[in-house]
Design a protein that fits this description.
117 residues, 12% helix, two-stranded antiparallel ribbon
Length: 117
């Protein structure tokens, strides 16, 4: 058979290869984005958007945020527990400015405890 010619279309199909389970064990797998309800990361610095420092609408704090990314929205949570939607930020900003996840949590409250909130 000449390797430059296509395989014979009338030839019987080749035997399927052996199935190999090459996936990581379940406890070592990282969930994909569609398996998560959201993501969170600490943000100790001020958030400055359009030349304006973002402050908590309730207590006025301007740094030490927990940034929450869920359903294509970004929320800022101050240490006092006040949350506010920040429409000037998006998931692309979150992805550019945060590192890999250091943990996953079954509930939002577990995540807050992990980050000392």
């Amino acid at each position: 058979m000449n390797p430059t010619q296509p395989a014979d279309p009338l030839a019987p199909p080749a035997e399927p290869g052996a199935v190999v389970d090459d996936f990581l064990p379940a406890d070592l797998r990282v969930p994909s984005h569609d398996q998560l309800d959201g993501r969170m990361t600490p943000w100790p610095w001020p958030v400055v958007l359009d030349g304006e420092m973002v402050t908590c609408a309730v207590c006025g704090t301007y740094r030490d945020w927990l940034v929450l990314s869920t359903r294509d929205q970004i929320w800022l949570r101050c240490r006092a527990g006040h949350q506010q939607h920040e429409p000037r930020l998006d998931t692309a900003w979150y992805n550019r400015n945060t590192g890999p996840a250091d943990a996953t949590f079954a509930t939002f409250e577990q995540g807050l405890r992990h980050y000392g909130r």
